[in-house]
Amino acid sequence: MTLTSFKLIDYLKKMRITPLRLLLLSALLLHTISGHTQQVNSTPDNSITRILFIFDASNSMWGEWQSDKKIHIANKLLSKMIDSLESYPNVQLALRVYGHQYESKLNNCNDTKLEVPFAYHNHARIKQKLKTLYPKGTTPIAQSLKACEKDFPPMTTAQCRNVIVLITDGIEECAGDPCSISKDLQRKGIVLKPFIIGIGGSFEESLDCVGHYLDANNEEDFDNSLHIIIDQIFHPTSCQVSLLDKSDNPTETNVNMTFEDSYTHKIHYNYVHTMNPKGLPDTLYINPMPEYKITVHTNPPIQLDSVKLIPGRHNIIAIPAPQGSLSVKVITGSTDRYRQIPIIVRQHDSADIINIQYMDIVDKYLIGRYDLEILCLPRLYIKNIEINQSTTTQIKVPAPGTAIIQKNKLGNGSLYVMRDKKMEWIYNLRDEDIQESILLQPGTYMIVFRGKEAKYTKQTVSKTFTIRSNMTSTVTLPK
User: Which residues contact 224 (CB under 8 A, 6 or more apart)?
Assistant: First the structure.
């Protein structure tokens, strides 16, 4: 069951949820509302954060903008951001610059260089390099992104988050494809979705596909964009997943959940949903930068796509997941062999298999109607059974009996069940065994058999017999 936010709302309507509750749940589903407003100035774990600044020093950065030239304002505000990063632990910074080595008339599309490699406490070195930059050349954004793959050295001793912050006053000028390269970097797991700040103009149409695009139409916007990036990188973001029962209460739990990047399809988190000691869904601290597809592994599974978290806040994600249980048991008596018989479970009137269950095992399902196919001999079909909220639907089937088939000679034959005076094939006898023991449902059966040494078709023999629950019937075929 794949549910977008809008499909989830339709699902709630079908469950006859009251208009007021539907309104509240719609807000939860479409906006993942903020439950807290506090922020914390440290990450929730000890992972290393590596930030690579890709800085535009192309000729256009000499342009006048607000109170000064673009290059001077960008240097000043980025240096201010770098100063603020000194207070954060476990941070490494690096600086890559493009458009600063060759004159623009040369249109050198390889004009990109890692000026300051990753290191701890290199803030002063990066600020000093920014002061010396002299804009000259063109804008090779794609080539700069491609080159940065080697800027992040492999990490072997700790987990890390690799972040790119691209600052530019223009779009790609070298016929490259920065969107494709960014997507490739993310798919390889080299970097998280990059941040792009567009200075002095709106480049969203061209650069939004590269990453999180932020417009900086003035100095204040630029400064605010840098603060937003810090918030998203460092302030811990928490969420709780409320799995709602039929009454809209978050009581469902103990089910696996997967958080997958909607863009790269990389799996970031796997959790088993848990209630905290207060009986509420447990709080999770997760990275707010990706847009998530959340899969709740119920039977059948529920998927909520394009979930955006508000950085530095507590987000509540409400997902309807009302469940009940199913148990299939033998009416009287049982055998260990019978417990191993698979039961195919499908949603009612659907051909898709959603689960394989076994006798005496209780499995949970979303509330609704289901069809069962019990792979005993002969197969049993039980259709349109109902699973209700927080209850166990119990299906009872007759206990089998045992048929011991004595063939006296090797040969070929088949077993049929007799229903309404008609033969229905259920099993081919093994042609290399003199004797077989078969579990069968109560009923009337017929064996049609011919020995391998028989020369004529008319030497085929038939034998009818009856099976009763928990009884053994020996069937001896004529010689």
Answer: none
Nearest-10 crossing angle of helices 5-14, 19-31: 160
- Give residue 382's Cα distance to chain centre: 32
DSSP state of 310: -
Could you tell me if 99 and 144 are in contact, meaning their C-beta atoms sit under 8 angstroms apart? no
Asked whether the predicted pLDDT for residue 449 surpasses 70, the reply is yes
Give the C-alpha separation, 184 to 152, whole Å: 15
Over 80: is that where the pLDDT of 7 sits? no
pLDDT above 50 for 325: yes
Does the pTM of the predicted model rise above 0.70?
Answer: no
Classified as helix, coil or strand, 394 is strand
255: number of Cβ within 10 Å: 20
Q: What is the DSSP letter of 225?
A: H
Q: What are the DSSP calls for 45-104, one per residue?
A: S--EEEEEEEEE-SGGGGSEETTEEHHHHHHHHHHHHHHHGGGSSSEEEEEEEESSSS-G
Omega cis (within 30) before 378: yes
The Cβ-side half-sphere exposure at 124, using a 13 Å CA radius, reads 1
In 347-435, which residue ranges form alpha helices assigned H by DSSP?
none
Per-residue confidence (pLDDT) for residue 157, from 0 to 100: 63
Residues in Cβ contact with 114 at an 8 Å cutoff, skipping those fewer than 6 apart: 94, 95, 96, 147, 148, 151
Summarize the confidence of residues 183-190 as an average pLDDT. 88
* Distance between CA atoms of residues 12 and 1, nearest Å: 14
Per-residue pLDDT of 454-474, as tens digits, reads 889 999 999 999 999 989 999
* Predicted local confidence at residue 130, as pLDDT: 95
What CA–CA distance (Å, rounded) separates 230 from 226? 6
Count of CB atoms situated within 10 Å of the CB of 423 = 14
Euclidean distance between CA atoms 300 and 302, whole angstroms: 7
Q: Record the tokens describing residue 65, joined without a space.
A: 């903008």
pLDDT tens digits for range 240-269? 999 999 999 999 999 999 999 998 888 989
Cβ proximity of 398 and 468 under 8 Å: no
Q: How far apart are CA 158 and CA 181, in angstroms?
A: 26
